[in-house]
Amino acid sequence: MANSYSEREILLELFPATPEELIPKYKQFKIKQSSLSQREILVNNKSVLELFAIPASGNPDTQISCDLCNTSAARKFFKTFKIEKPSSDGRVFRYYWMCANLNSCKHRGINEARLEQILINLGVI
């Protein structure tokens, strides 16, 4: 079985004199599938937000862009997720488009900066 290495590990192995500000940080944000219609955002392996899929509507051929990996495709390949803003007592929600297949989204590369921006907009970090 082949080993897998992170960008950080490869950079430090091949270019040990790289300035600290150019070395990628360890990933502190993760997203995981809890159930078919629910996902969780983890910060430092602690669950901070739950995302709930909502029923799709509209033309399934409309082009949509994933808010995490930025891929574009027909709406039928995406799900809309509703996130309750913490401390809003169920009055404020945000909606995000994400790939229906989370593994494919992760394979294309979830943009850490986008995930961080979602958490900032929701007041989590």
What is the topological layout?
Elements: H1 7-14, E1 29-35, E2 38-43, E3 46-54, E4 63-65, E5 72-74, E6 78-84, E7 93-99, H2 102-108, H3 112-121
Antiparallel strand pairs: 1-2, 2-3, 3-6, 4-5, 6-7
How does this model look, in words?
The chain is an alpha+beta fold. The chain has one domain (about 30-120). The protein contains 3 helices and 7 strands; from the N terminus they run H-E-E-E-E-E-E-E-H-H. A 5-stranded antiparallel beta sheet has the order 1-2-3-6-7. A two-stranded antiparallel sheet has the order 4-5. Strand 6 (about 80-85) and strand 7 form a beta hairpin. The longest helix has 10 residues, at about 110-120. It starts with 6 loop residues before the first helix and ends with a helix.
In a nutshell, what does this entry contain?
The chain has one domain (28-121).
User: Radius of gyration from the CA trace?
Assistant: 17 Å
SS elements, strand count: 7
Unreliable residue runs: none
| pLDDT averaged residue by residue | 87
Strand order of the largest sheet: 1-2-3-6-7
Shape: globular
Major sheet description: 5 strands, antiparallel
Oligomer, anyone? single chain
Number of domains: 1
Termini separation comes to 38 Å
Q: Which tags fit this structure?
A:
34% strand; 125 residues; 5-stranded antiparallel beta sheet; alpha+beta
